[in-house]
Amino acid sequence: AARASPLARGRLGLLTVLAQVGAAQGLWRAGRAQGLRALWKGNLTACLRLGPYSALQLAAYRRFVVLFTDDLGHISQWHAIMAGSLAGMVATIATYPTDVIKTRLIVQNRLEPSYKGILHAFYTIYHQEGFLALYRGVSSTVLGTIPFSAGSLFVYINLDKIWREPSSHFTPLQNFINGCLAAGVAQTLSFPFETVKRKMQAQSPYLPNYGGVDVHFTGMIDCFRQTVKHRGVLGLWSGLTASLLKVVPYFSIMFSTFEFCKRVCLYRNGYIESPLSYKLTPGVDQSLQPQELQELKLLRRGNLEPRKLQAKETHS
């Protein structure tokens, strides 16, 4: 989160008052006007949000996986992606106020701050604008999960065609590239909702220049309308470059790490011959659960030991 903060700062600059300049120019202006530390505004909030967000997402994902798993213990690719999307939605809604606070801390002028810190921002927003202000833009976030999931699914179901080989043969490098493709497509499709969300989070009548947003609106639909009216359709994708520079490496590393860890688990439980490939272990029933497989190994080992003793007695 700490390394990505300048990119988030540049992206938010594009989504708000600096929508007419590029990501690099937005970073340069912010750093020059407010100092280098301005590029890390809101980073502490992002770091504090990461822990509970990840914990909630993982717990919810497990619940949804159990819900979508059939009687044979299998889950389809579509259901797996849906489980991930719903889990992300649950975690986002639960931790959304911290995301609003992060945005407010980023868009404010560090030299003349409206908020002194995280707690002061939470207290001020709650007392000035009400509790619902802490969830401003959440509807756009929820709707954005639809194109994000669709983009991810589109990439995953076509990976075999892209590489012209089954997914079981993918190398770690291929998995990294797969993560890049999935994140790039999904983020591009869902980015208009991200744009609207950030504008809704930043806009406030209690902040200078209404939070620095480049258009004024009354709700999510009006925000879409006003953005297209003043910035054109492509205005909904302002800041996409900075966002991709942050999101694509993150999801690529996460995806490739997940795939490698999955192979390690399969290898340690005896399903595959090596953690570097998905080559199945000969003679192993792949339908068995890990506990059942371990019990079978112990049973075979127990039957084998008396035979060894008998063989030794015969030779002696």
From TrEMBL:
**Where would you find this protein in the cell?**
Mitochondrion inner membrane
What membrane topology does the annotation report for this chain?
Multi-pass membrane protein
Q: What keywords is this UniProt entry annotated with?
A: Membrane, Mitochondrion, Mitochondrion inner membrane, Repeat, Signal, Transmembrane, Transmembrane helix, Transport
Q: Where is the signal peptide?
A: 1-26
List each coiled-coil range.
Answer: none
Solcar repeat start and end residues: 1-67, 75-162, 170-264
Q: Mind naming one GO cellular-component term on file for this protein?
A: mitochondrial inner membrane
Residue stretches spanning the membrane: none
BP GO annotations: transmembrane transport
Entries under SUPFAM superfamilies matching the protein = Mitochondrial carrier (SSF103506)
Which top-level group of life is the source organism from?
A: Eukaryota
Q: Specify where it is mainly localized.
A: mitochondrion
InterPro entries attached here?
A: GDC-like, MCP, MCP_dom_sf, MCP_transmembrane
Per the similarity annotation, which family is this?
Answer: Belongs to the mitochondrial carrier (TC 2.A.29) family.
* PANTHER family to which the protein is assigned, alphabetical: SOLUTE CARRIER FAMILY 25
Q: What is this protein called?
A: Solute carrier family 25 member 43
Q: Which organism is it from?
A: Crocodylus porosus
Query: What taxonomic classification does the UniProt entry list for its organism?
Result: Eukaryota, Metazoa, Chordata, Craniata, Vertebrata
